[in-house]
């Protein structure tokens, strides 16, 4: 089995997939990748299942040594990346060799970077997912963020597939602005707010405070007026729910949110805008605008189509070679080539 | 309870089913009935259900079903929910060591309510507590049914770490901490039973709709049960709840 050794862990690096489903009724949060779109792009680039477990890197990346040849891809927030001192591109497959050292620098656009490895990481699933949930200390590597010296196992994959290096089309690569418009579905407790309060919410810019993590984002801005107070009888919280406690400033509930809560929810960020929200950093700005449920569902379908089309396009171009064939990587004038050598009868 | 449930959008993947606007056993039973009916005859596209005090949040996959069709399905479930016969509720028995270092606030709870420590133990262990919902931390039960005679305000400053298994009182609620966590509840005892273990199947011991009985034990019993729990040989005692008993 091949491995990745962690030389530097980065600021906050965890394992994430699509999270735990079906356990919120027992009080267990979903967790999973904050920017699920970027996670899926990374997996597609290395030929994995779209929701296989990847590394989620926050703000500043790790340095990693590889013990065998493998393929990786980096997506999400943009940052400088080097392999053995040479700069490599994000949003395309990178072939790494035994002893290669990958260094991921500081993010300059967005906030979270995703690293997928071909075959994915070999980790136990806890309640159906390998996602690290830090507060509950479950998932990933012993429920913890990456530490210096950690050794990550990579799953074996069938060798007799010639793997084309993949490059993400320019139009699919997300742009992460530091001031964004986010679409929301109003409710479920929009009737807890005055018409003036609704106007405040939809008409003003809110700033992301430093109190923002995988659980939730506290925003700062114009105070939203309630009708008769902020408290409701605790009920289930969807991903992207916008709670407004009595102080009048919104909190957006993210991947590690608790399953239930007792503050009125004025609106809920639509699924397709969660990823851009996940790439905000403290000081960035958000404006909210309301859309209808059918519009939100159209966007989910369009995004799903993009992802399935991409995966299908790459798979079509993948060549399956005979078991006797050998694949060599050769480097000529700084360019890397893969050569398949097979005996002809 | 509302004559008919209210259905509301909770983002583009959720339906919030509101059954009433209070906390009551009647509303809880309707929620149990709805959850049971949905589980018995699920429709394609349901991802999960999160039952709470007066509502259920249903998460669905919009690639498989529209919001309108999901609500139509739920209305059909609701119209036949009165015909459902629910399986009887279980009582889960929590052996509990009261007072001493395991429940250091019991003296305060007693003096706050002008009772003796023995009376606090007697009142607390006499109750049957309905699990309305789980949440807050993995496996934490929100319980109803505590006697007002022992209700006590929270600590003014929360403790940094409360040991898992601790049994506490906050206002007119009682509860058990499933994992080591910070908290401001008045601690009156501790159970050796493990409520949450991510490596166990099922990871969470309790279910909403069950009742909890706190059964007082002594230190030697506590140690004995602790050993059995660690060895994986302890069988949690469960009995059938009969209404009115």
Automatic annotation (TrEMBL), chain B:
Positions of the Carboxyltransferase domain: 5-206
Record keywords: ATP-binding, Hydrolase, Nucleotide-binding
TM region(s), chain numbering: none
GO molecular function annotation: 5-oxoprolinase (ATP-hydrolyzing) activity
Gene3D superfamilies: 3.30.1360.40, Cyclophilin-like
InterPro entries from the UniProt entry: CT_C_D (IPR003833), Cyclophilin-like_dom_sf (IPR029000), PxpB (IPR010016)
EC code(s) of this entry: 3.5.2.9
NCBIfam families on file: 5-oxoprolinase subunit PxpB (TIGR00370)
Record protein name field: 5-oxoprolinase subunit PxpB
Underlying gene: pxpB
